[in-house]
Amino acid sequence: MALRKIRLFGDEVLRKKSREVEVVDEKIRQILDDMAETMYNTENGGGLAAPQIGILKRLVVIDMGQGLIKLVNPKIIKQEGSQEVIEGCLSNPHVFGRLLRPEKVTVQALDENGKEIILTGTGDLAKCFCHEIDHLEGILFTDFVTKYLK
Prior knowledge:
Peptide Deformylase; three-stranded antiparallel beta sheet; iron; protein biosynthesis; EC 3.5.1.88; metal ion binding
């Protein structure tokens, strides 16, 4: 595993759409491991998307306290309700804002072995699913902020 440099707001890679992963192989698993190590090496990181380390592949790692989740080609297949949340981003440290996210989200993806999985998250996990999958589309949380916090 290796620490990767986190790209910061202003880096054009953060505004580009990521490509689907065709085959989940050892190279993809290594990227996921590097992403997890990089996320765990930050102060408050609960998730990291591949574009944040300069890789335009549809890969996400998340740990909101329930254990590490590795997702390949994740997509939201269902969302319910609405919640006002406060978000930040490892690519824009020290900037936080209020925005609306779904209260409950169901995600379809492949795991690190290429097996299809379906996960449902509520509250903070739902927020994190949305935030990280947005990164794969070149969308940043600041696109939705209703109020910035000081």
